[in-house]
Design a protein that fits this description.
450 residues; Outer membrane efflux proteins (OEP); 10 helices; disordered N terminus
Length: 450
């Protein structure tokens, strides 16, 4: 009589007992897909950082808007002459007054001795013709803000797609774990029958060891699957922006109804054109490039400003105490050696490049949606084929196991059928995960956010 309990116990150490794992799963709260997406969009750390970029663009726009208003400047000087200042007024420099004659009647010299002096001046400048260029700059800033918003939308779509992908993987893996647990229980029953036959001397020691080895292998596969799902759960918690050890349960694949799976190809492409952030961003980049071209062209407009100033002088005996001015200030560069013309031509090329990039982005997304849509159809067909293969192997194993209880000589047939079923269930689990991964990729290509 051969004792296999030690080998079986060693194999059992490589996995958590199925009953304990199942009870732990049932104790965790259920997390729906919609709840997971909503939680990720609200608490994901990367999304919070991207949202800051939009806030920065808003503040930048508000700062540029102040350029339309008058510019006020206050300046003050406190100074001391380092030497005496001598001034000479030539004879008649102030004109001739009959009958006094020329003023002054002779060269006159006066000096300003070394002393302290002060000047305080306030000035205002209101741009006039510059308002057009300021408006174009504000339009560019508003477009930059909308581009930042589309970047945020794209990041939200990416996070939602990552949540869906991970959620689907967890759901498919859990179903695979259920199948593995059933298979482990089946091999445990086979091991129990083989141990009895071994005690009665009906089967050989090598046959008993082969069953134990098969049980250890299936338990290892179950443990690997449970470890894998633990990693997926931690990753999903991290994407949701919460403690990675937070327990939860997901819906089974049969309870999930992805809307993208029932879309026709053209309908999926139409939704992608309307919702993909990349297409909107490319359109905004085209508008921004055209506005930048108009801004460069506006450089030919002269700068005309309304200016006013008031100065208060102290300790300048020869100068008035108050000086006030008001007037217009004009600045224009009539000849620039063709610089503005070349800058405008450069912006034209950038506008055309942005327009071509918009068309290319839209075409790439159309092709991507078609690829993902066809991949989903292929994954669905493969999943159905693997399901039928698994059903056939399970039926064969039930038949062979029942025959084995009556005829120990067909142990080899039972092991071969069990190996086929194990491979079929792995293939079915892979096909199930592949199907839901294809669903997530199609939803990401369409641009679904919620």
């Amino acid at each position: 009589m051969i004792h296999l309990s030690g080998i079986a116990a060693l194999a059992a150490l490589v996995s958590t007992p199925p009953g304990l794992a199942a009870s732990a799963d049932l104790a965790a709260p259920r997390l729906s897909l919609d709840e997971a997406i909503e939680m990720a969009l609200e608490h994901n750390h990367l999304l919070a950082g991207t949202a800051r970029v939009v806030d920065e663009a808003v503040e930048r726009t508000n700062a540029l808007r102040t350029g339309r208003l008058p510019a006020l400047r206050l300046e003050a000087y406190e100074l001391r002459w380092l030497n005496d200042l001598d001034f000479t007024i030539p004879t008649g420099a102030l004109g001739t007054v009959p009958p006094l004659g020329p003023l002054p009647p002779q060269d006159s010299t006066f000096s300003v001795e070394e002393d302290y002096g002060g000047v305080a001046m306030v000035s205002m400048s209101q741009p006039i013709t510059q308002q057009y260029r300021i408006g174009l700059g504000l339009e560019i800033a508003r477009l930059d803000r909308r581009i930042a918003e589309e970047e945020l939308r794209r990041e939200r779509q990416r996070v939602a797609a990552e949540v869906r992908t991970t959620y689907y993987q967890i759901s498919a893996t859990e179903q695979g774990i259920v199948a593995l647990r059933d298979l482990v229980r089946s091999v445990e029953e086979l091991d129990a029958v083989t141990a009895r036959y071994l005690t009665e001397g009906i089967v050989l020691r090598s046959d008993g060891l082969e069953v134990v080895a098969r049980l250890a292998l299936e338990r290892q596969r179950l443990a690997a699957a449970e470890n894998g799902i633990a990693t997926l759960q931690e990753h999903l918690n991290q994407v949701l922006g919460r403690e990675v050890a937070t327990p939860f349960r997901v819906a089974m694949p049969s309870d999930l109804a992805p809307p993208a799976a029932g879309l026709a190809l053209e309908e999926a492409r139409a939704r992608a054109r309307a919702s993909r952030a990349e297409i909107r961003r490319a359109s905004l980049l085209t508008a921004r490039a055209d506005t930048a071209r108009r801004l460069v062209t506006a450089g030919w407009i002269p700068d005309l400003s309304l200016t006013a100033s008031y100065a208060r002088l102290s300790n300048f005996e020869t100068l008035p105490d108050d000086v006030g001015t008001v007037g217009l200030y004009l600045s224009w560069e009539p000849f620039d050696w063709g610089r503005k013309r070349h800058e405008a031509a450069e912006r034209v090329h950038q506008t055309e490049r942005a327009r071509e990039g918009h068309e290319e982005t839209e075409q790439q997304i159309v092709v991507e949606v078609g690829q993902r849509w066809r991949a989903l159809k292929d994954a669905a067909a493969l999943l159905e084929a693997m399901r039928l293969e698994e059903d056939a192997c399970a039926a064969s194993l039930d038949t062979d196991r029942n025959r084995y209880r009556e005829n120990a000589a067909i142990l080899r047939d039972v092991l071969r059928t069990e190996a086929r079923l194990s491979a079929a269930r792995r293939d079915f689990t892979d096909a199930l995960a592949g199907y839901w991964s294809a669903v997530a990729l199609l939803e990401r290509a369409i641009g679904d956010e919620n």
